[in-house]
Amino acid sequence: MSPETRIAVGAAGVGAVGAWAAGWRWGAPTALAASLGAALSLLNYLWLKAGARALLPAAGEVSPRGVRSGALRFLTRLGLLGACLYAIFISHLLPFPPVVWGLFAIPLAAVGVAVLQLIADW
Fold it and tell me: How far is CA 60 from its chain centroid?
């Protein structure tokens, strides 16, 4: 399994455990907010990966159309993420801090994968 796939799977696990813990401690709205943050984090990571692959194709496989669509996806992911967070913040339907906590699912998974790789190489 590639490190990118391990990070995505790890982020899903971190998000699920975080949502369960938040729900156990603070209730269902907090669990829903944390899981929404983790889902946004995972979606942002997947779009970042796809956009970077389209922007940086292998040598000799440069396609102007692919580069344009990759650049558009690369830039619009930030706008969509910002719009989602703004809507959550303004609507007050869910508590905002757990959404932000959920956004840390990818960084936590990346650190976990890096530590496991260091242990395996040691």
Answer: 30
User: Is 101 within 8 Å of 17 (Cβ atoms)?
Assistant: no
Count CB atoms within 10 A of the CB of residue 77: 18
User: In the numeric block, which tokens belong to residue 11?
Assistant: 């982020």
Q: What is the dihedral of CA 85, 88, 94, 96, to 10 degrees?
A: 40
DSSP 60: T
Residue with tokens 């796939």: 5
Q: Which two tokens stand for residue 43?
A: 């979606």
Report CA-CA distances (Å) from 76 to 18, 51, 66.
Answer: 27, 10, 15
Quick one: which of 118, 120, 121, 110 has its CA closest to 11?
Answer: 110
Distance CA(20)–CA(15), nearest Å, equals 8
Could you report the per-residue pLDDT of 85-110, keeping only the tens digit for each?
999 999 998 999 999 999 999 999 99
